[in-house]
Amino acid sequence: MPMSWEPPEIFVEHKGVIIFHVYKDDEMQNGQREYWYTTSESGGEGSGFEFDVRELPEYDSTDHEGTVKKAIEAGLLIQDEEPK
């Protein structure tokens, strides 16, 4: 039976930018990747829109959401675009 596509879960929405979870091997049943997120609803691993939160300025290992929000405010994460 063919599997149907399901959109990824939203990690955070801030100032009009939506950040989605990325899944291991792009399969939800494999679980969310711990440090990787994407700015594209249809883009996961290898899409060019994913990013590693540890590479963002002001990375806080205990607050991924806060780190991502600061990057959005700094203009580093834009919807459907690669991080600068």
Give a brief description.
By secondary structure, the protein is α+β, with helices and mostly antiparallel strands.
Q: Which SSEs are present, and which pair or pack?
A:
Layout: E1 10-14, E2 17-23, E3 32-38, E4 50-52, H1 64-73
Antiparallel strand pairs: 1-2, 2-3, 3-4
**Order of strands across the widest beta sheet?**
1-2-3-4
Counted by DSSP, the helix tally is: 1
How confident is the prediction overall: mean pLDDT? 87
> In percent terms, what proportion of residues is strand?
25-35%
- What structural class do the secondary elements suggest? alpha+beta
Task: Tell me the radius of gyration.
Answer: 13 Å
Give the biggest sheet.
4 strands, antiparallel
Order of helices and strands: EEEEH
Helix content: 10-25%
The total domain count is 1
Distance between the termini: 40 Å
- Backbone shape: globular
Q: What are the segments in which pLDDT stays under 50 over at least 5 consecutive residues?
A: none
The total count of strands amounts to 4
How would you describe this structure to a colleague?
- By secondary structure, the chain is of the alpha+beta class.
- The protein has one domain (10-73).
- It has one helix at residues 64-73, and strands at 10-14, 17-23, 32-38, 50-52.
- A four-stranded antiparallel beta sheet has the order 1-2-3-4, covered by helices on one side.
- Strand 1 and strand 2 (17-23) form a beta hairpin.
- The longest helix has 10 residues, at 64-73.
- It starts with 9 loop residues before the first strand and ends in an 11-residue tail after the last helix.
